[in-house]
Structures are given as structure tokens and as C-alpha cells.
Specification:
Layout: E1 3-5, H1 7-14, H2 21-29, E2 35-38, H3 41-54, H4 60-72, E3 75-78, H5 82-96, H6 100-112, E4 116-117, H7 121-130
Parallel strand pairs: 1-2, 1-4, 2-3
Length: 137
């Protein structure tokens, strides 16, 4: 079954101190499923890798290898319309006390009617409140 994948899960794969069994099980699911993600996802992941690289947390070559690995995984980035970004996502974020970035993942899950994989507690609570199932890794 397809699912929505957020940056928190993906970034845990890159950093050993953040990696846990449930996040690795989500990665394993990609052998049989396709993940769908928000248009913000590539920017969020890229920015986090760059910030970690600048802080010396990840070697530039390792960051590049990780990014290349993500390109071969079955992850579909869903575009977002301007109205969705400026009106609908803002409203969803306000209703669930989320950032617009996190609301974009919730929006994809709501529109597609598929579960959400996240390690973000606020987003998890918002998903449950909105009736979105969470991927249990």
C-alpha cells in the first residue's frame, strides 16, 4: 500500500544517531510500495543535509551519496498549486497548529486517503486528529 513520506523519516536514515527500527521498516516498505510526498520534501531534505554538512555532522561525499540513493527510491513528489499553498495549506496548518511545511504532508495524505509516515510528534497528532492513519514501522 502506498503512503505519504515526510522528511523526518528520510533524514533519520542519513544520521545514525537518529535512525531507529521503525524508520528502517518504512525504508523496507519501499521495496513493495511507492511513497508519495509533498513538493516541499526535496527542499527540506536537501536543506537539512546542507545544514548538517556545514556543522560537520555529515561528510559532503556522504551527503551526496545519500541524496543519490534517494533518487532511485520509488518516491513521487506531488506538485502543489498556488492556491493550495497560499490558502488551503495555511488553513490546514492553522487548524492543526502545524507549520505550512508539515501541513503539506498532511494534505497529501488527506487528499489521497493514504497513511502517513512521520517521526514528528506534532504532525502525528495532527494526522490522528484529522483521521489519517499513521504508518507503523
Amino acid at each position: 500500500m502506498n503512503f505519504v513520506l515526510d522528511a523526518s523519516v528520510v533524514l533519520s536514515w542519513a544520521f545514525e544517531d537518529e535512525r531507529d527500527a521503525s524508520a528502517l521498516r518504512v525504508l523496507e516498505r519501499l521495496r513493495e510500495s511507492e511513497a508519495v510526498t509533498s513538493s516541499i520534501w526535496p527542499l527540506e531534505v536537501s536543506n537539512a543535509l546542507l545544514a548538517a554538512q556545514r556543522r560537520g555532522r555529515i561528510d559532503p561525499a556522504d551527503a551526496a551519496r545519500f541524496a543519490s540513493h534517494l533518487l532511485v527510491l520509488p518516491i513521487v513528489v506531488e506538485p502543489v498549486e498556488r492556491r493550495a499553498s497560499l490558502v488551503d495549506l495555511r488553513r490546514l496548518a492553522q487548524d492543526h497548529d502545524l507549520s505550512s511545511y508539515d501541513a503539506s504532508y498532511l494534505d497529501v495524505a488527506l487528499r489521497r486517503g493514504i497513511p502517513l509516515a512521520t517521526m514528528d510528534m506534532a504532525l502525528s497528532r495532527a494526522a490522528e486528529s484529522a483521521g489519517v492513519a499513521l504508518v507503523k514501522g
